[in-house]
Amino acid sequence: MTVSASELREPAPSRGLTLPSARRLLLWTGLAVLLAWVLVPIYFVALGAFGGRLGVFRWPKSIWPTDLSLAPMLQFLAIEGVFNALINSLIAAGSTVLLSVALGAPAGYALARYTFPGQNVYRLLVLLTRAFPLAILALPLTVSFIRMGLYDTPFGVSLIHTVLALPFAVLVTQSLFMGIPREYEEAAWVFGCTRFQAFLKVVLPLALPGLAATAIFAFVISWNEVFAASILTVRERTLTAYLLKILSESPLHYRFAGGFILILPSVLFIFAIRKYLFAVWGIASK
Amino acid sequence: MADIVIDRVVKEFGSFRALKEVSLNARDGEFVALLGPSGCGKTTLLRIIAGLETQNSGRVVIGGRDVSELPPRKRGLAMVFQNYAVFPHMTVFENVAFGLRMQKTSEAEVKRKVGRSAALLHIESYLDRYPAKLSGGQRQRVAVARALAVEPAVLLMDEPLSNLDALLRLELRTELKAVLREAGTTTIYVTHDQTEAMGLADRIAVMYGGKIEQIGTPLEVYATPGTRFVGGFLGSPPMNFIRVACSEGAARIGNITLPCPVASSEMEIGLRAEDASLAPIGSGIGFDVRVVEPMGSHLLLTGSIDGQLTRIVVPPTAKVAAGERVGLTVDPSRLTWIDGATGRAVVRA
Question: In this protein, which residues make up the domain named ABC transmembrane type-1 (chain A) (predicted)?
């Protein structure tokens, strides 16, 4: 950087949002580095996943996509157990979505609409569940799950994933419901609705985009989670847990294909719900 | 149609008494305005009538039916909210039809009633639009149409015009009055805007500190305020209060003597700015003019009588200059006598 210090120390002229050019350069450089940090590895994983065996081992590497095909991906999906694990992952993630929305949204609604003693403590406790290390719980959980017949089932895995997803579901839906004026509900009550009808007819339609985001969030948490899934299953592994087991002994281009399938949902999800995430973190979004 | 009886309603928020045993009757078809500064409890009272808040004690009776314990939907009323509360995910038509649909009205009936209500408020041309595409005034028309569509026995309005700009407020106010007169609905209207209350209401209940200070027709409340607060809250400029001492049934103010209604040493005279007129020089009550503000339709004079701040309105053609001392004559029958200790008006014999 050849920007002189005196130039940086100069106060920004009050011309709306335009920054002095030196600062703008710094800002964009920073942004570019950050973006590259995140996107370049994903790009190379994608390249490896669709380039096949030859693409992976070619040297010198080309950074431009050449002879891409879906074949390696299809081959990967045809490996024994991958398809079954994929189904298990979908069941686990689906149940996690249902449970965390069904349990999290009412809690978020209560936090948004009512004041009750211990509200702030409750809000903190909800988050603290994430601070409790899962590793400590692993053994007792396994024992209890075996006793209850939940061991080695996608549903059992989804219960643990719900515990992980619930704090976010509660906090996201809370800010969501806080954004819907109480007056809408009151108007619905006055015009003949019970509380529940008012929720269904007025609050729910308005909350739907945010609830969808919450659902996807829960989906991705379950999809990406590997520790609990590995411990609580033996044969009925979720995709993540299964890949962890088999990829270490697979050829490189399979690893890329597996990696890519794991990355994809998260990337799509974060893009879809970025607005609501910012709302939760108190950053105004445009 | 129905009358409303509010019987000794008390509402407490924690240790704060928002309403202190408020009682109020509204006759069938009457338009009653609850007027007061913010925090006086007027909105709380309205929400208790609606069933959106629960009173700590007291009863609300609508059309002879005690609704104190009923949820809002069973009270047979409609409401217009300050922030419109028009549902953003429904078209204007569906918004207006909302109450009717909840009553399981037949489709033909819904169409007819929505059409009539929309015609009253002049919103027919945008029935199929979404509220996001409407201006504030249009949204409030939708909110009123939604309330009228269910043909409620009682209509509650919570500062419905306060979010609109001045010109629109005037226009919608005039229209509301005509529409509501036609509908013959018993209406409770909350506002902090005295011109709205004066212009719309059959009777005004002036509220202050969780109590109704006075209730009466707009002219009664204006001309014969029951307390110092009512006189000072209504009118622009507000009523002047001039401390005088009464002795032997007479009060001296300036160099004139007025008959005193009661024998009390601490009295205040409530004088409306327009109830004084200029007297020939050297006669009347001495008034030291400090500021002269030409308002177009009148001159607003600010000055003092016996060293007490007083505002007087005189015709625009009057020849008065700042720094002058002029004489004022007042009509004793238009003065309000207020007990300085209690702040209550003394009833004239």
Answer: 86-273
